[in-house]
Specification:
Elements: H1 2-61, H2 63-66, E1 91-92, E2 98-99, H3 119-126, E3 131-137, E4 142-145, E5 158-163, E6 166-177, E7 182-187, E8 202-204
Antiparallel strand pairs: 1-2, 3-4, 3-8, 4-7, 5-6, 5-8, 6-7
Length: 209
């Protein structure tokens, strides 16, 4: 009999504890929902205040918007004409494809005719080539030409050096004369200003003694 009473009491206690726990959970859920609702109301109030302030600022910056419309008058939107593009700007056709404006063709510059060579230049170009400069030693002031005893080159013979249609120097054959080569001294006074003797310059007879 006593065991039955104890079991009945334990069952009653467990039932009461279960009811209490369920009630407490419901209260906590209700409190959470109330906090969420309160947070939403605060956010909505802030949004309403911001919208009201923005509308007031817009009306202040645009006084015409604050004036009531006049009966019978139609409100006109911004009727300013669109800006005219500059000449060097690209227009756009429907579809977004750019249209490149035609550029005026550049006028072709006239090409001057080649200058007619002078009589002296013609005489220099008409001279036959005897040899060529094979080597030039600027520090020592002499050249090696591709003509020697086989071409009857003798000591003390003078030659001019030709490049295109101009004389770039005068040389005098020295002591060293071989079968196909000879060493000749360069007269520095005969070289025009800004000109340097180069390998490949042609050896010709003296144009003007």
């Amino acid at each position: 009999m006593r065991l039955t009473q104890i079991a009945f009491a334990l069952t009653f206690l467990l039932l009461g504890a279960t009811v209490y726990v369920a009630w407490q959970a419901r209260e906590e859920s209700r409190g959470a929902r109330e906090q969420v609702e309160l947070f939403k109301r605060q956010q909505q109030a802030q949004i309403d205040v911001s919208t009201s302030v923005g509308s007031s600022a817009t009306a202040f910056n645009n006084p015409s918007a604050m004036k009531p419309p006049v009966p019978g008058q139609v409100a006109l939107e911004n009727t300013q004409p669109p800006p005219i593009p500059a000449k060097n700007e690209m227009a756009t056709i429907p579809g977004g494809a750019p249209v490149i404006p035609a550029q005026p063709a550049a006028a072709a510059l006239p090409v001057p005719p080649p200058a007619e060579p002078t009589a002296m230049q013609k005489k220099i170009m008409a001279m036959p080539t005897i040899a060529k400069v094979k080597e030039y030693q600027a520090d020592a002031g002499f050249t090696v030409i591709t003509a020697g005893k086989n071409q009857r080159v003798a000591k003390g013979t003078q030659f001019d050096l030709r490049r295109d249609n101009a004389v770039v120097g005068r040389i005098t054959v020295g002591d060293v004369i071989e079968a196909e080569e000879a060493i000749a001294d360069l007269d520095p006074k005969s070289v025009p200003a800004g000109v340097t003797v180069m390998v490949g310059d042609e050896v010709i007879q003296v144009v003007q003694p």
